[in-house]
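Section handout 9: paired folding examples.
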Amino acid sequence: MSDQQRQNKLIVRSVEITPPIALAPMVGLSHSALRSLVQEAGGVGLLYTEMLAAKRLPHDNEKCSPLLVRSEGEHPLFYQFVTASDEYVPAAVEKLHRLGAQGIDLNLGCPAPMMKKQGAGASLAEDRIKLTKVLQILRKSTELPVSVKIRLGESIDTAGSRSFCRFLQDEGVDLITIHARLNGEKFCRKPRWAMIGEIKDAVSVPIFANGGIFTVEDARKCLALSCADGLMIGRGAGENPNLCAEIAKNVYGERVGRQNSKTEIYFKFISLLEERFAPERRLGRLKQFTPYFAAPFTFGHHLASAIQTCTSIEQARERATEFFSDYI
């Protein structure tokens, strides 16, 4: 499929996704500051929150929780939660309704040991009985779009993956994102985009491809191999918050605004942290973001190291100013 033939708009229940490019849910990264930074550049059609614990969610205060802080412009926004039991789903969904969620995402892909111990994330995806209960109560509790994010499973099993995606669709899932790696594979492992292409025609709901997309050419290759209906951009957006805009413009032919320079982006991010988060929450978010953002720079490790040892956001701004003056 050529760039000109690609569908630039998806409707998932009542939610329009234009263009079909999503910013992935990433722990410590997909908060309000990064979402707004990426959205300001343009080209992102769908935003996700960080992973939320269904058990804790009803008790979290959206006015102060860094996981729930949201500006009016962040739209459409799907809230991702993780759970190992259907017990906590109704109250979590009720809270998301009150927060004005445009959609709800169930994490079925996180392979972290803590999630495995709890029976959540990728482990829940392996337990069909528990997962059925979770999906049924989730679908019963909301008319919002329901999405899931999955991996390719414990081992390469195309027939099994096709069957699993059909099961998800039959249980009311409206959008499936597939991270094109097996459960145990690290990010350094080349993603298996072609496997998504072998799965896609098993379902009629849209499938987004995720994993290993850092450039426009990566996006083109991923779409060619996966035949996906859209893309979910993760760490690539941390390294380059303009990436969604670049893909939207060059792959989907979308009009986007002016792209800020690397220096402008970094200081804008700091300003957004100061605007959105309590003082004690700002520096930690900057320290999580900086190693990703600094990675493409020739001497980026200098910036990452300098920020990691900062004791205040003011000191971080000073050190960043010095870095960009010397190297950019």
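Moving on to protein 2 of 2.
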Amino acid sequence: MTDSKQRRLVLLGMFAIFTVQSVALQASARQDAKPAKLLIAFASTRERWDPPYPKIHFYEHDGVANGKLLEAIDTISKGTNNSRADMHPALSRDGRYCAFASQFGIANGGQTEIWDRKEKKLLELKALHGLLKTHQMGATQSADGQLVAFTAWAWPGASIRWNVLLYDTTAKKVLDLPKLNGEAFDQRMPALSADGRFLAYASNAKPGVGLTDIYLYDLKEKTVMALPEMNSKSADLQPALSGDGRLIAFASDRPGGVGSRDIYLYDRAAKKFLPLPGANSLAAEQSPSLSADGRYLAFVSERLNGAGERDIYLYDRQTQKLLPTPGLNSKQDDFDPCVIVMEK
């Protein structure tokens, strides 16, 4: 066999291997691009607008273009006007448990609640309930539902400002977070990664990069990580994390955005911002929520072509498109979304 024939055979073999690998990669990409069954928890004033007491609602989506409203958490039992205002839901991995912040009237402070969707009842949270002089907001939980983080005003034994606290639902106690809270500044808007390793929050602590910065707390190492390459001189707030804490979605009014306030997505490992083409508008966007796999992004927008004053939008990073969400929004305020990919 001549050298030229041998070279041709080698090249043909390499081409065949490349073709097989290419087909396999394309098949894998198509498989990865398959939509998933989603569950969105959100707050809405659609049932009680005057006065505006929001309830937590649940919405199922096929990851493409179809969805339907499910049940809501009944709140017509307590509080002023026989009502209770519920906000900022956070779902466990299987969608069974929903942590949220609950406001009992005007005089009493808010408190953290967990609703069991299977048993249709609120869980007893010792050490968190019955503290009427404190105010608890911004509930978030790990995927297994064991850890619940929230922010509290005037928490007993802490500063009189806003502090981020962490509650263990198994041990039924508040855990220590050394180095996180500062007496002279506010720590607010917590977000737990699904694996329970990282806790993001917003703070006006000084010296910082801007008016409000986002920080990341490593619950394993008990350390605070500043993110100067991500934060700006403006207000960066409302963080949301992917399952492993690598991706951080947040709202910011920094210069150079599409509108007055936009949603940004930052990759900590790559140390760069990821594009979100078509997500933001000229209006204000806020309150992002990332699915654990980082594919789906739910957020609130005040754009004029929505159903109401504030509406929830669902963005697929795989297709880089906003997805239709029939029946999700109303003529009233719909806000504080939490999106998860349901287990198969």
